[in-house]
Specification:
0% of the residues lie in helices and 44% in strands. The protein is built from no helices and six strands. Strand 1 and strand 2 (21-22) form a beta hairpin.
Length: 91
């Protein structure tokens, strides 16, 4: 049984992979660029717990029976090694 580079053509595509690693499809990068990284060399730290605020005091929200909702959280993304993520041009 052979191995497929991207995914096995089984009819149902689950998570796209490349040599057994997950591939993230995004529109945030142009078609001729790539980003490869190791999640083991980085960490996410919670700088502030999630803060959820609900209010009816905005404009005429009280009379229209509407609610304004604001949710925020502050996170820090740390990369421990510079070589953990590589960005470049496709050949």
């Amino acid at each position: 049984m052979g191995n497929y580079v991207v995914f096995a053509p089984s009819g149902s595509i689950r998570v796209p992979t490349l040599w057994g690693k997950k591939v993230v499809v995004t529109n945030s990068m142009t078609a001729d660029k790539f980003l490869v990284g190791s999640s083991r060399q980085c960490g996410i730290f919670d700088r502030m717990k999630a803060n959820i605020m609900i209010s009816t005091e905005h404009s005429d929200y009280f009379t229209k029976n509407m609610v304004a909702l604001r949710c925020e959280e502050r996170l820090a993304f740390c990369v421990y090694r510079d070589a953990a993520f590589i960005y470049g041009d496709l050949p």
